[in-house]
Amino acid sequence: MHGLSRLGSARSTTSSPPSSPRFRHGRNKNIAGSRVGSGGGKQNLVEKLVVVLISAVFKRKGVLLVAPLLYISVMLLYMSSFGFDVVDLKSVVVVRERAPPGSVYRSPQVFQKLWPFMQAEAIANNTLMTAWNSKVHQPWKPCADRSNSNAELPKSNGFLIIEANGGLNQQRLSICDAVAVAGLLNATLVIPIFHLNSVWRDSSNFGDIFDEDFFMHALRSNVNVVKELPEDILQQFDHNISSIVNLRVKGWSSPTHYLQKVLPKLQHLGAVRIAPFSNRLAQGVPSNIQGLRCLANFEALRFSEPIRMLAEKMVDRMVKNSSQSGGKYVSVHLRFETDMVAFSCCEYDGGEEEKREMDIARERSWRGKFRKRGRVIRPGANRVDGKCPLTPLEVLNCIELSALPSINLLFNKFILIWFLVKYEYLLLKLCFVLLKNKFLKCCANTLQFLVIITG
In terms of domains, do 250 and 333 share one? Predict the structure, then answer.
């Protein structure tokens, strides 16, 4: 007696398993298709074409991926964007990537090559002399509309206090922006406070640098300006300006931001403070706001009397010493200070000492701004793009090669010490050549810094 099979009936005499239902279904479908006619043949032909096309694409996939990479590699090699130097160190071959052209500071080497030519007499014909022969003489246009100069200003919405940080030029820009913001908010501007800069450490106030009375008088028809807060406002804040709320405005904020965020606080509190205020107003603003900027910059801001008297003496001296060129002169301010070089993220040839000094300066002045995630510092790319400050050696090279008639230079004491110690002899050689060619009137050297002045 045979028991029932797990795979089929007990009467089954074959060991073959039953056909798959999917196979049976497909076979029946083919049979049905053959009964219908030749439509199935066309369908099979299309399927075969699709399969052939897909297989061809997959077979050429490697070529399709390699072709763009091959093209890019050939172009990079053709343009010489990458190069390598092979160095043999005691049977050990070291392959070093060569820096792209113009990405490394090599001015001292350039100076040594140009030195024989600098010792020769200067070229008499100088095309730069045509800079004074301007054919276009257009009068200055006023910054603001003077038609309503006698109109009274509307009632103030409150007092605006700003803190101008940075160097003198940044402080000037902050003052101009403060005038524009005060006009936008219809606020009374308090004479700006100067932040004590960590580099310059200059404790001068606004009145030490600029003429306060003239500043207030020039803006009287556009913005109300006071020297200090009135007594009632001081009592409201316990005679402590630090108690006044400080609005942390983002850099390059739009006029709309000031109208929506700052104006309500100003009207509610009666006085607001914005510190720091450097670059806190966008560049692209309506013409009426830009006009206030222009008015403050070109008319309202005037140096204090001691500074103006000193400047007049310097200009008179330079004109007299430039008698050979008809009183024409060029004045160059060599700005090569620590903070500027650190902010540029450029590398020179000071080695580890330079890198350490620049890292400390960046951390001291900008507190981690250059260490943020995603921040990539590319000194070589900065130099190729022309964003690196000129060293005193480079400026003197330009002066000697340009053959200007009379040059007046001032090297300030904030020149980086590592640079000055390393290239002091080169600077002195250039000074001698400039003196020989009568480009400079005086050249003096001190132990800490180099000063080149006229007189």
Answer: no
